[in-house]
Design goal:
7-stranded antiparallel beta sheet; alpha+beta; Cathepsin B, Chain A; 11 strands
Length: 280
């Protein structure tokens, strides 16, 4: 009887030990699941937020850098200024029409849609001497025919008349054409700095002006034509190189540069004639 009682007690002890062990295993499993779940949540949060933060920061940094570069690494070069004037070639229609072609360049620059052939209608022209052999001076009209190689030309007051006639016909009242106030060539750079291109009377290749040996009679004098006179549009300058920059209606390159001193000399020889258009 005693031995039987001892066997029952031993069996109960084994059962209790087993139950205890199984309960600990389940708890550890739950704890492990809880820890894994927390770790997964932590990793998920980290994975979503970090790239967003990094992307946003990178985008902002890139934008700021781009803006800074655009502002600071492309400064305007104050020593070289060139206005955006579209070149027009006088040939083939007007082999002797540099003056009216330059006028057209100025008008186009200010947004007026007119061609050199349209502007020719406003140019006072006297093609030949009268019956007494008396002709006009280039102060009175264009002498000859700009469509012919035998044409001569005109001075700045005649081109001023042509531009004013165009303004009047088109009822344009908020622009005016005038002689620049300053007469020294370098003073014309003040107009360039105000974004105003300037027509000047100079010469082909900025060589010294040469006058013809044979002239013609006008109502008041004998006139001798400057044979190599040529009009160009001053569009800029380069102080470092000491050059003046032009839109040339006769040079196929369109834009040309000449030493400032050479231009100034020829400009003086041609009586410092120039024209500019201003908005009133």
């Amino acid at each position: 009887m005693k031995q039987r009682l001892m066997a029952i007690i031993a069996a109960l002890a084994v059962t209790f030990a087993c139950l205890t062990a199984c309960g600990d295993s389940s708890s550890n499993e739950d704890a492990s699941k809880t820890e894994s779940s927390s770790a997964a949540e932590t990793n998920t949060t980290s994975s979503e937020s970090k790239p967003e933060t990094t992307t946003a920061t990178t985008a902002e940094t890139t934008t700021t850098t781009t803006t800074t570069q655009a502002t600071t690494t492309v400064p305007q070069n104050k020593n070289r200024v060139v206005l955006d004037v579209k070149n027009i070639q006088q040939k083939p229609e007007l082999p002797r029409g540099s003056e009216i072609t330059c006028a057209t360049m100025l008008l186009n620059y200010y947004g007026f849609n007119v061609s050199k052939m349209d502007m020719l209608k406003y140019l006072p022209i006297v093609e030949a001497p009268d019956a007494n052999g008396v002709w006009v001076s280039p102060l009175d009209a264009y002498v000859g025919n700009p469509k012919l190689e035998t044409g001569y030309g005109c001075y700045n007051n005649i081109i001023k008349k042509a531009i004013r006639a165009y303004f009047k016909t088109e009822k344009i009242t908020d622009y005016e054409v005038k002689d620049p106030v300053k007469t020294n060539f370098v003073d014309l750079y003040e107009e360039i700095n105000k974004n105003n291109p300037v027509i000047i009377w100079a010469s082909n290749d900025m060589t010294d002006i040469k006058f013809s040996e044979k002239g013609w009679k006008t109502a008041s004098e004998d006139f001798y034509w400057p044979t190599n006179v040529h009009c160009l549009v001053l569009i800029g300058y380069d102080k470092d190189k000491g050059t003046a920059i032009f839109s040339d209606p006769l040079d196929p390159k369109g834009t040309v540069e000449y030493p400032e001193k050479d231009v100034a000399k020829v400009y003086d020889q041609m009586y410092s004639m120039a024209l500019v258009i201003h908005k009133k």
